[in-house]
Specification:
Shape: elongated
Helix content: over 70%
Radius of gyration: 18 Å
Distance between the termini: 45 Å
Number of helices: 3
Order of helices and strands: HHH
């Protein structure tokens, strides 16, 4: 099992917590707008996950290519990417579970 530094986890959590801050108040448009807000939040989370992964790959390429780079920065970037991906997967699993529970409800 790998150990992820606390700073990496805190950074990933802070980014995830900041994503939904603009969509906390209900919108006047109804359910369609609320679903769009949630969809926008998920899109932003996925985009951030991709960007975090790209940043890790860029730092790794800088170190392996011989240009300026620090191995600690690479390890930190990869750990942040891993934590962000785990967060996205966990949210996805929770959404699927909630959907399945809703589908099991009697009408």
């Amino acid at each position: 099992m790998t150990t992820i530094p606390a700073s990496t986890v805190l950074n990933a959590y802070a980014r995830a917590a900041g994503m939904g801050s603009g969509n906390q108040t209900p919108q006047a448009g109804g359910a369609k707008d609320a679903a769009g807000g949630f969809g926008d939040m998920l899109k932003q989370a996925i985009d951030e996950s991709v960007e975090t992964s790209k940043a890790g790959e860029t730092k790794m390429a800088a170190v392996t290519g011989g240009t300026s780079g620090n191995i600690v920065d690479v390890v930190t970037a990869v750990a942040e990417a891993e934590t962000t991906l785990q967060t996205v997967v966990t949210v996805r699993d929770k959404v699927i579970t909630a959907y399945q529970e809703i589908m099991r409800m009697p009408i």
